[in-house]
């Protein structure tokens, strides 16, 4: 009888240990930290990318237990508090921005899966992750250009200007890639399409206002094409506002150029 009890206890202990291994919580940085460092961000992204089983649901906004994790990952203050700190060196901030950017690219792919009806499985998360990336790139590219300017003897040289313009054109091209998401508008719900329109209003206007003298012809041309293609009135309206904004910047630049010519 004694041996039987011992065997039973041993069996129960094994079951408990096995159960604990199966239900072990995922390892994320502390959620009560005011801001996550780039290391925290990388660790959290890697946890989602590589330590969730196929049958497990990755963090979503709909799950109260994991929504706080995703909200913390997508808190733009995590990178803004570092990239905006002028007491930190430009080289350091540029390197940190690069690390945020690379990790963001990884997680953006994680939430882009479609179901059998070609609908986004994680629609809200997919939109939020990409909005995070658009905001991040505004800071990341600006710091990169600031670093180039600060490390050269002649910031006004043609070579430096060419590099800066090339970087800005890359940024604009990256934004155009996000505009191409309109091609997939049938993969979105009506609410998702509204969020795409809000993205255009918020982030695309930011990049135009940040670099008003840059060449936005390709963005304008792509917007004009999508106005004809989209079936969403919200997206169409946002594209029309974006085109007007670009045209107003172009007109202002032409006027300033005419004034310079007349003064000379």
How would you describe this structure to a colleague?
The chain is mostly helical. It is 71% helix and 0% strand. It contains 10 helices and no strands. Helix 5 packs antiparallel against helix 6 (123-150), helix 7 (158-179) runs parallel beside helix 9 (217-229) and helix 9 runs antiparallel to helix 10 (233-263). The longest helix has 31 residues, at 233-263. The radius of gyration is 24 Å and the shape is flat. The relative contact order is 0.07.
Label this structure with key terms:
264 residues; Lipoprotein; mainly alpha
Short description, anyone?
Helices cover 71% and strands 0% of the residues. By secondary structure, it is an all-alpha fold. The chain is flat, with a radius of gyration of 24 Å.
Q: Please give the largest β-sheet.
A: none
The structural class is: mainly alpha
Unreliably modeled segments:
8-23
Helix content: over 70%
Question: Number of DSSP helices?
Answer: 10
Give the DSSP E fraction (strand runs of 2 or more residues).
under 5%
- Silhouette: flat
Protein name: Lipoprotein
